[in-house]
Amino acid sequence: MVIKRVAVIGAGVMGHGIAEVVSLAGMRVFVNDIKEEILEKALSAISTSLERMVKKGIISVENKEASLSRISLTPNYAIAVRDSDLVIEAIPENLELKKTMFRKLEDFTESGTILASNTSQYSITEIASAVSNPSRVIGMHWFNPPAVMKLIEIVKGLETADAVVEQVKDFVRKVGKEAVVCKDSQGFISTRMLMALRLECYRILEEGVATKEDIDKTLRLAFGHPMGQFELADFSGLDIEIPVCEALTKIYGDRFRPPQNLLHLVRAGRFGRKTGGGWYDY
User: Fold this and answer.
1) What is the structure's pLDDT at 236?
2) So what's the pLDDT on residue 141?
3) Structure pTM?
4) CATH classification for the domain delimited by 5-183, as one of 3.30.420.40, 3.40.50.720, 3.40.30.10, 2.170.130.30
5) What is residue 271's predicted lDDT score, i.e. its pLDDT?
6) What is the CATH number of domain 190-273?
C-alpha cells in the first residue's frame, strides 16, 4: 500500500505541525479536533509557518497555497479517518484516552489502514490492545516542532506487522524525514535518553554545583546543543514531565524519580513558557 491520504487526530502543536509536513509532501491530510476554534487556530498556525518559509525562500507562494489546499479540517473524527491510508493520533498524553480513541478509530477505518500513535512514552503494545487487529498499530513519535525536526521515532509493538513498519519507513522518507526504529520499551530511545540527561541537570542544580544558566551554557557550548535542558524543559512544559518521570521510575527505578526542585515548580503552577515562568521567567 502506498500512503496517499492521512488523517491527524488532534490539532495541537504536534498535530497541526504533522499535518503541515504531510501536506507539504503532496499528500491529502484531514485534521480532526473536538472544537472548531482549535481547528481554526491550527490552520492559522500552519499558514503562518508556511508564510515564514516563503519569506525565507524555502518554498514558493504557489507551494504554500497548494499545501493549504490539501488540508481539510473537521470536528468529526469519523469523517477525518474515512478512506485514510494512515491515521496519526496526536491527542494529549493520557494512556486511557489514547486507548479509547483507538477503539473508535477501529470502527471507522478500513482493515488495512495503519493506526499510529505520536506518544513519546506509552506502550504501543498496550495501546494496540484496544483494537482487534494490533498488527496495524505502530508508534510514530514526531519531535517538536515537526516542520523543523528531522527525526521520527518508529516504535514496533509486540504484534506490529513487519510490513507496517516498512510502509511507515517509506512514508517517513517521502515526507522528508529520517527514521529510527526501536522495539516497544518504556520511553523508547529518545524520551529515555532525554530524561536521563535532563534529570541529571536538575540534580546538579539541586546539589548547588552550578547555576541553571551555567548548566545550560555548558550544554550549548561544550556539546553543541541548540538549547540547554532548563530552556528546553520550559519550552515543552514542566507539567508533562512528572507523569513521564513516574512512568519511567516504575520500570527503571529511582534514577528517573523527579527531583524536589521540579516538583516544587509544578506545584507552584510554574509550567514554563506557557504560564510565563518555569525554570526561567518569561
Assistant:
1) 87
2) 97
3) 0.89
4) 3.40.50.720
5) 97
6) 1.10.1040.10
